[in-house]
Amino acid sequence: MPRRWVPERGMAVSATVFQRKQIKRKAPRGFLRRVFKRQKPHLRLETRGDVLIHLNCLLFIHRLAEEARINTCENKCGIIKKDHVLAAAKVILKKSRG
Description:
Elements (H helix, E strand, L loop, with lengths): L28 H11 L9 H26 L7 H15 L2
Helix pairs in contact: 2-3
Family: Belongs to the CENP-W/WIP1 family.
InterPro entries: CENP-W, CENP-W/WIP1, Histone-fold
GO molecular function, one term: DNA binding
């Protein structure tokens, strides 16, 4: 049984990030296809196109959460509020504009 990693003395527990190597759940492909067909019936996706769109959404949400957390820390708040998320969304949408 492998030993569990313990943070060093003086290191904040919140600073440690554990990353899982395996994905526990698969993308809800049927649901995604149904939503795409409802919204854009003329859109033709290749076989794994829905998975790529799902991955893009997950990456956007991850960036949004990180930026909102940074805004919260800058404002010296303990809780991420609606205003923090809206400010983060503005920043991220500006960055992702091509």
